[in-house]
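tool_call predict_complex ligand=flavin mononucleotide
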Amino acid sequence: MIRKKKAKKKLELLQQEFLFAVIIREKMEYLENIWNKGKDFLGVKTPIIAGAMTWISDSQFVADVSNAGAFGCLAAGNMTPEMLDSEIKKTQELTKNPFAVNLITIAPHYKNHLKVAVENKVRYIVFAGSFPRQPEIKTAKASGARILSFASTESIAKRLINMGVDALILEGSEAGGHVGHVSLGILLQQVLFKVDEVPIFVAGGIASGKYIAHLLLMGASGVQLGTYFVLTEECRAHPKFKQSFIKAKARNAISTPQIGSELRIVAVRALKNKGHDQFSDLQMDLIQKRRKNEISLTEAQFEVEKFWMGALRKAVQDGDVEFGSVMAGQSVGLVDKIRPIKDALDLLIQETNLELVRIRKKFQDIKPYRSI
Ligand SMILES: Cc1cc2nc3c(=O)[nH]c(=O)nc-3n(C[C@H](O)[C@H](O)[C@H](O)COP(=O)(O)O)c2cc1C
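tool_result ok
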């Protein structure tokens, strides 16, 4: 009896999935319409941004993403200006599709990075790290580039728009890498629901099309994912780095605590390992040096960034996932399979569309409420 019931349920589910597969082929226009603004702004088929990842997002990976119809971002953070120049040129050769250069405003070579990006007439520049200054935005725009910047509050968003930023990225603290303090759920209400002058792309904790559908309905023009793209065949991170993503649970991706208040640090979300503990030791050491006036605050913060750059390289390139920094978002708990970029994107697109169809059906099925 129980077995019969189970078989019936399974058949019903299969029929439902078949029906959705048919509907989905016909109703792709829901999705096409809903993310039109993001498509137009980025000039792509699929307004899904593969967020820049230092040591990972090089010319080949960025071109692979952009050639698959999504939007790649070249990570300048770890490069000398000469390397960046050559990587931009290589990307331009490998893809005719749009991509961005991600500039970290607190990186040691930032000013020269900007100069190189402008000289190469890159079509999109993403300012990350902290907020770009007015003259920097002006210089970037004068070269013809479209500007994206991270915003963390409504007032910062408005200020950036007034300064000429063309689109915003809202990144929740669930994300991997350097993170703010506020989760995406709050940022959506603080910024996305209040700002509609420019396209807004949202990031942090996204790893399913079902979630993307709801974010688009809330007003996002597109999304940015990092952790999800690490588990693609084209991502050339060390196999051990990818394996640790496959094994990890969401709760293993924790953000670094700040020790005391003497040294302000930007938190980093990564898988907890011995490298995490080493970072606490580094902070203590730097605080001691500060107390003895042996280093300035800027030098101390620079040491912190140098630590992360080296620790991330150790994990991504050498596969040292014990002492290196395995930067990952909490969405690491939602991914467990390595796929080609094209399949990874197709999956997100199918899921997003399926969810939009489901939502529409849900509304059609709602009967008007009548009190007895
Ligand atoms: C390994 C790693 C390195 C990253 N490096 C950068 C970077 O260089 N510049 C940047 O703006 N964001 C960086 N990020 C953030 C991503 O671009 C993206 O915004 C973030 O991963 C989105 O959150 P998710 O991981 O939950 O998808 C990095 C993230 C990871 C996981």
